[in-house]
Amino acid sequence: MRYKIREILLVSSLYDYYLFEEDGRLYELLREEYQVLNLSQAPEITHVTTGSEALELAVTENTFDLIITTLHIEDMHVIKFAQMIRRAGLTIPIILLAYDNKERKELIANYDTSILTEFLSGKVIFRLLIGIVKYVEDRINVENDTSLVGVQVMYFS
């Protein structure tokens, strides 16, 4: 696997971050799950509450492999945030998390969500975070893995 996610930028309100944290143990739970599944090193997570701060970190540090955001960031609409990331020339995958299908349907009905890499809804727990990381890695690595290494793939529509 050529592409590995090592650094995640998590953009959410403090309340959403509290829900993510699983009693303050998010990174610990993520690390433990990676060990149980015999996966490589768990990615580091940097959390910010505003799109402005996220954009500044993403541009200046240029170390993030994945941006995960919720609909609830403190200083701007999430679509505007994604547009600013793209205008800055960053091609980092952006995953948007919504807590229910109602939020998802409203966003899709009122905005062009094609700027996002993926849009997921449901209760966010650390196992979902592992699934997101593996999904993005596989999606980016699929062409290399199938053409050069010969890994077989099943496509679903």
What does this protein look like?
- Helix content is 47%, strand content 15%.
- It has 157 residues and is of the alpha/beta class.
- The chain has a 5-stranded parallel beta sheet.
- It is globular and about 45 Å long.
- The two termini are 24 Å apart.
Beta strand count: 5
For the largest beta-sheet, the strand count, sense and barrel status come to:
5 strands, parallel
Strand-pairing-aware structural class: alpha/beta
- Return residue spans where pLDDT drops below 50 for at least 5 consecutive residues: none
Report how far the terminal alpha carbons are from each other. 24 Å
Q: H/E series, N to C? A: EHHEHEHEHEH
Summed up, the helix count is 6
Strand order of the largest sheet: 2-1-3-4-5
Rg calculated over all Cα atoms: 16 Å
Shape: globular
Strand content: 15-25%
Mean pLDDT: 82
Structure described in brief:
By secondary structure, the chain is of the alpha/beta class. The chain has 6 helices and 5 strands, in the order E-H-H-E-H-E-H-E-H-E-H. The model has no long low-confidence stretch (mean pLDDT 82).
Labels describing this entry:
157 residues, alpha/beta
List the helices and strands and how they pair.
Layout: E1 7-11, H1 14-21, H2 26-36, E2 44-48, H3 51-61, E3 66-70, H4 78-87, E4 94-98, H5 101-110, E5 118-121, H6 126-149
Parallel strand pairs: 1-2, 1-3, 3-4, 4-5
Helix pairs in contact: 2-6, 3-4
